[in-house]
Amino acid sequence: MQVDCLKESLSIDRLSSLVTGREKAQFSSDFEAHRDVIATNITGKRILVIGGAGSIGSATIRELLPFSPATLHVVDQNENNLAELVRDLRSGEKLMSIPDFRTLPLDFGSPIMEAFLRNTEQYDVIMNFAAIKHVRSEKDVFSLLQMLDTNVVKQARFLRWLFETHSGARYFCVSTDKAANPVNLMGASKRSLEHVLFSGEVSPSSSLTVTSARFANVAFSDGSLLDSFIKRLQKHQPLAVPKNTKRYFISLKEAGQICLLASVRAPAKSILIPRFDPSTDLLDLELVAKAVLRQYGVEPQVCLDEEEARLNLSALLNKGQYPLLVTPLDTSGEKPYEEFVGDGETSVEVGMTNLLAVDYLAAPKGACTIFLNRVEAMLMKPDSAVGKQDIVRWLSELIPQLQHIETGKNLDQRM
C-alpha cells in the first residue's frame, strides 16, 4: 500500500482546514473591514520585506499583492526560496502591476544591507520575518549565540539603520507566542526582540510606527511539525509527536492576514494576537497527527519506542496502518500548551472581531542596552568561559518572566 504524496497547494489547504476546523480564513472579516486602511498604506507605496521567501513572509506578500504597491523588494538569504517565490509570483496575475519588483539574497544585518538601505529610496512600510525560530537551536552555546545574533542583535542594528536613513513610516517585525511567559531561549530571544522594538533604547528619537504579532503554529509552514508529517509520509518514515501537548493552529493565509493587519493597522507599540479560546482552540498534537494519517487513508498505530516505530513501518503499512511515535515532553524548553499574553501583560481591544493586541510591558530600565552590549561583545570575541547558564542569567535580567526549562535533552536527540 502506498501513501499519496501532497504535491498541490490545494492539498495543503485541505489539510489546513482539517487541522484548524475552518474552511474560511479566521481573520477574513477583519481583513475586509480594514481593506481601506490596507490600501492606503500599500497601494502605490514602497514596500520592503525581510525574510520574505519563507512560509509566513511569502504568505504575507500574497495578501498584499492585490493592493498593487509601486515597489516590492524582498530580502532573504535563502536564494533557492527566493527563486521559487519569483516563479510563483511571476506565474500569477497580480505581480505585473508592480513596476519595481526585486529580490535580493542579502543578510539583513550585514554591511551590504546597510549600504543597500543608504543607497536606496526610502520605503513606506518595512516587514521583517527573519528569524531562527526552532527551540532546538538552544542546544549549545554556539547555536544559541547565532540565534541571539539573528533574533536580537541584527534586529537592533537594522532598526538603527532605518532610523538613520529615515526609511519607513511603519515597521513590523514578527514575534512568537513563545515570547509570552517564555520557558525556552528561542521564546526569550523573541521577547528580547520586542524590547529592542519598543523600549526606545535602540532608536529613542525614531518616528517609526513599530508593531509586532504573536500567533499560533502555522499549519504546514516550512520546518513546522505538521510540515514534517508530509515529509515523513513521502519518505515512509514514522510520524512523531510529544505526549499531552496542545497547540493553536492557523493556516498560512491566516498568518499572512495577521501580519499585514499588524503592519498597517495595529496601534504603535502593540503586539497583535488571535482571539482564541483555549478551551476549544487548543488542539492535542497526538490527535492532530492521527487526523492527518486518517486523511491519507491509513490508521495510526501508536508506538512508544523509536526502534519499534522504525522497524515495524513496512509491516504496519501492509495492513493499512502507520506508526505514530508518541514521546515524553522532556526536552529542554518545551511547553505543554501555548499562550499569547504573559504574566503582567494585558490584552486590549483594537477594533477587530478576531484579533486583540498585547500592550507592550517594558523591561527594567536600561536592561535592553546592557543585554545587547553583552551579546554583541560575545559575538565579536566569543569567550569560552561563558556558558549557556550565563546567557540564561543575562536573559533573565532582561526578562524576569523567563522560567527556562533545562532537562539535559534536546530535540536533535529525538526522531
UniProtKB/TrEMBL annotation:
Cite the Pfam families for this sequence: Polysacc_synt_2 (PF02719)
Which keywords accompany this UniProt record?
Answer: Lyase
Query: Which residue range or ranges hold the Polysaccharide biosynthesis protein CapD-like domain?
Result: 47-352
Supply the EC number(s): 4.2.1.-
Judged by the first EC level, this protein's enzyme class is lyase
GO terms for MF: lyase activity
Transit peptide among keywords = no
Q: Which domain of life is it from?
A: Bacteria
Instruction: Write down the InterPro entries for this protein, in alphabetical order.
Output: NAD(P)-bd_dom_sf, Polysac_CapD-like, Polysaccharide_Synthase-Rel
Keyword Ligase on entry: no
Q: Which SUPFAM superfamilies match?
A: NAD(P)-binding Rossmann-fold domains (SSF51735)
The family assignment reads:
Belongs to the polysaccharide synthase family.
Name-wise, this protein is UDP-N-acetylglucosamine 4,6-dehydratase
